[in-house]
Amino acid sequence: MIKAGIIGSTGYAGQELVRILLGHPNAEIVWYGSRSYIDKDYSEVYGNMFELVDAKCMDDNMEELAEKADVIFTATPQGFCASMVNDEILSKTKIVDLSADFRLKDVSVYEKWYKIEHKSPQYLEEAVYGLCELARDSVKKARLVANPGCYTTCSILSLYPLVKEHMIDADAIIIDAKSGTSGAGRGAKVANLYCEVNESIKAYGVATHRHTPEIEEQLGYANGAPIVLNFTPHLVPMNRGILVTAYASLVQKYSYEDIRAVYDKYYKDEYFVRILKKGVCPETRWVEGSNFVDVNFVIDERTGRIIVMGALDNIVKGAAGQAVQNMNLMFGLDETEGLRMPPLFP
């Protein structure tokens, strides 16, 4: 059994890690870390875990945890993992970090977008960007994985085949994305109160959202050259889900069959990426509670553009599910282990 420790287990992503790992046949949770609820029963924080989790919340002592766990999940704010990780810890355990601390290779870009000093830039080169479908072999050998962001995962997987095959103008990509309120975390914020969010939709982080450089960096690798794009997120009144609608100009005239063949080339053997039938648009309700990403596209013959759509659950494939998928790869398991749950409905 893989002994797993979770630091930040009482956030939404941390709780989803608990839910998934409780049903994982090859893993057991040995540490429920939570700085806010130390010594409190975990099931008091999350009532859905009543009689399922008989454990108290512990602190965030990563050095002690490294002695007990084969893998540590850090579902924590930016800066925590980078401030704690060291050679001794990495010699004893593997880490899957759900924050942005090790996603960007250029420390100056990280510090510019996240407005904090990076405490361990010496690990940036080693850290593997854990988008499993694109970095599977590297993840298998990693001891430190940077779990991708939710908007980022949806945006990259939706656009990757077109960028990789140079079928679109990579310098003119526009990504319009929408997220459920769980993406903002569990902390009390006036802007996330029910009365503030219900019956409304708003853009935020316009031209400044911190997932922008992450999307640019990873798609830039696919392109073979840097990419600069527009990314605008929106908050919508639902609990879970990411919907990405991306626009790009095609470099020449392609048929539906041409584009479909490229998506099949990259994703036909990917269990968690579902390319929908022609004319079917992705919907967040069809991926909720699952590790699936639904993708499709429409060619706009009139404008010569392509509209690409993607949907995922921001807490599962956009966070905890992908983290477990990474864990599976790191320990030589089938990457779908513990993640084959079908989407919830309604």
Give the topology, please.
Elements: E1 2-7, H1 12-22, E2 27-33, H2 42-45, H3 62-68, E3 71-74, H4 80-84, H5 87-92, E4 94-97, H6 107-114, E5 128-129, H7 132-140, E6 144-146, H8 150-164, E7 174-179, H9 194-197, E8 202-203, H10 212-223, E9 230-235, E10 242-249, H11 256-267, E11 273-275, E12 293-300, E13 305-312, H12 316-330
Shape label: globular
Ranges where pLDDT stays below 50 over 5 or more residues in a row are none
Binned, the helix content reads 25-40%
| Main CATH class of the largest domain | Alpha Beta
The tally of domains stands at 2
Tally of helical runs: 12
Would you tell me the overall average pLDDT?
97
Q: CATH homologous superfamily of the largest domain - what is it?
A: Dihydrodipicolinate Reductase, domain 2
Distance between the termini: 34 Å
CATH topology of the largest domain: Dihydrodipicolinate Reductase, domain 2
Walk across the major sheet and give the strand order. Answer: 8-9-7-10-13-12-11
Order of helices and strands: EHEHHEHHEHEHEHEHEHEEHEEEH
**CATH architectural arrangement of the largest domain:** 2-Layer Sandwich
Q: In what range is the share of β-strand residues?
A: 15-25%
